[in-house]
Amino acid sequence: MDYRYGSHTVFKIQYHFVFVTEYRYQVLQGDIGLKVRELVLQTCNAFSIEILKGVVSKDHVHLVISAPPNMAPSETMRRIKGRSSAKLFESFPDLKKRYWGHHFWARGYFCVTSRDVTEEIIKEYLEHHFEVKGDDNFRTEG
């Protein structure tokens, strides 16, 4: 497994995010799409968020990331969407005409945790690692 290390933590926390442009306008093409990619990469690097996979489509962005445990998914999206929105309006002033309310991204987002370990693997590990004491599913070692 590919664990990440912090000063006092070892972790593997992965999220799959999807977020869309306001009104689903298909503007994430050409220079704007490239700029979105650049801004998302910069933001993720600044906050120790590792991009495992990502795609910038015409009206939405898919990201599979590994995030540190001190950053909630909502905070991750706030930083990525907020920072990229402001910089896009600076870089492409014509976007302000289309997005007159200064909201480049739609309000919500999709988020799901992604994992490599299935419930069966965890159950099997726990069954063989600890001594069986009764029929409860929450055990202590020894």
Give me the CATH fold name: Alpha-Beta Plaits
Counting copies of identical and different chains, the oligomeric state is single chain
Classify the secondary structure makeup into a structural class: alpha+beta
Spatial shape? elongated
Helix content: 25-40%
Order of helices and strands: EEEHEEHHEH
Strand content is 15-25%
Largest sheet: 4 strands, antiparallel
Head-to-tail CA distance between termini: 27 Å
Second CATH tier, the architecture: 2-Layer Sandwich
In total, the number of strands is 6
Tally of helical runs: 4
CATH class: Alpha Beta
Could you characterize the architecture of this molecule?
The structure is a single chain. The chain has 142 residues and is an alpha+beta fold. It has a single domain, classed as Alpha-Beta Plaits (2-Layer Sandwich). The protein is 36% helix and 21% strand. It is built from four helices and six strands; from the N terminus they run E-E-E-H-E-E-H-H-E-H. The chain has helices at 30-46, 73-91, 95-98, 119-129; strands at 4-5, 10-11, 14-20, 50-56, 60-66, 110-114. It has a four-stranded antiparallel β-sheet with strand order 4-5-3-6, covered by helices on one side. A two-stranded antiparallel sheet has the order 1-2. A hairpin with a 4-residue loop joins strand 1 (4-5) and strand 2. It is elongated, with a radius of gyration of 20 Å.
